[in-house]
Design goal:
This protein has helices spanning 48-57, 73-76, 79-86, 96-102, 105-108, 110-115, 167-170, 196-202, 227-236, 247-250, 263-274; strands spanning 4-5, 10-14, 28-33, 36-40, 65-67, 89-92, 132-133, 139-142, 145-151, 160-165, 172-177, 211-216. The protein is globular and about 45 Å long. With 275 residues, it is an alpha/beta fold. It is built from 11 helices and 12 strands. α1 (48-57) packs across α3. The strands form 2 sheets. Strands 1-2-3-4-5-6-7 form a 7-stranded mixed β-sheet. A 5-stranded mixed β-sheet has the order 8-9-10-11-12, with helices on one face. β4, α1 and β5 form a beta-alpha-beta unit. The protein has one domain: Metallo-beta-lactamase, Chain A (4-Layer Sandwich), CATH 3.60.15.10. It binds zinc ion. Zinc ion binds at residues 70, 72, 155, 178.
């Protein structure tokens, strides 16, 4: 069991890069305030019990919400198992919500991700029911504070950022999923639904939010002065150069992954083995 307290409201309870949960998990955040709690993202579902244990150790036994930023397996795969253990309404935006419920490997981007060695070959996405379809601008009450959904089709067509307004004391805190990262990085990947044009058309919704903290779906967080990191990506899309992308930094080499080579290579390999 382990967790990292990031500020008075937000605790990191999952994430492979931190050694908090499965190596394949993206960051999983626990928001607890006024006697209520929510998760933002849920990991892959490879070992969801570790995340559940971390939440309990952080002092929370019951969730009100499990906010999903998008359908990719490293963020959404654990939602069903965690709801079973800790309760909570699972929320996601269309069309990703439908993928969480019934998307095939191709639509989820899992086939390509497996070939890249991102997930173990045996991994299967644990589909689960989404309780609430998130709509842009809707605000969810949480322990006297509010969490607002901002849909940003970009990294995936149903990507959502969640804006926690912690008032004068805590400021605005943005859970950005894989839309934008510290340093103004973005995540443009070769997956169905990840569209450069969508990034160009929608990322400006994150301009002018005056966010203090940025909690992305991977790697480091930013606790103060975060808006300029978000704005760096927004501004890049006003010009002709792409912002730096996260992908080359974020792919873990899973030790027991066995990427399937194209059929031509497979023939070549068996030929070599015989020789
Ligand atoms: Zn993603």
């Amino acid at each position: 069991m382990a967790f990292i307290r990031l500020n008075p409201l937000v605790t990191l309870v999952g994430g492979g890069v931190w050694g908090l949960s499965s190596e394949c998990d993206g960051n999983v955040y626990l928001v607890a305030t006024g006697g209520e709690a929510a998760l933002v993202d849920a990991g892959t579902g490879i070992d969801p019990g570790r995340i559940v244990d971390n939440v309990r150790q952080a002092g929370v036994d019951r969730l009100r919400y499990i906010f999903l930023t998008h359908a990719h397996a490293d963020h959404a795969g654990g939602a069903g198992a965690i709801r079973e253990a800790l309760g909570g309404e699972v929320l996601a935006a269309e069309p990703d919500a439908t993928l969480v419920e019934s998307g095939d490997d191709e639509a989820l981007g899992l086939s390509a991700a497996r070939r890249s060695g991102i997930y173990p070959a045996r991994y299967r996405f644990p589909h689960t029911r989404v309780d609430t379809r998130v709509a842009d601008g809707v605000t969810y009450p949480l322990g006297g504070l509010t969490v607002q959904a901002i849909t940003v089709p970009s990294h995936s067509p149903g990507s959502v950022c969640y804006l926690l307004d912690a008032g004068a004391g805590g400021g605005r805190q943005l859970f950005s999923g894989d839309v934008v990262f510290v340093g103004g990085r973005v995540s443009i990947i070769n997956a169905p639904g990840c569209e450069l044009a969508a990034y160009r058309n929608h990322i400006a919704k994150l301009a002018g939010l005056d966010v203090q903290a940025l909690f992305p779906g991977h790697l480091v967080v930013r606790l103060t002065g975060a808006q300029r990191h978000v704005s760096a990506a927004v501004n890049a899309f006003q010009g002709s150069r792409l912002p730096p992308t996260l992908v080359s930094l974020s792919i873990p080499e899973h030790p027991d992954s066995t990427p399937e080579p194209p059929s031509g290579q497979r023939v070549l390999r068996s030929g070599r083995a015989r020789g």
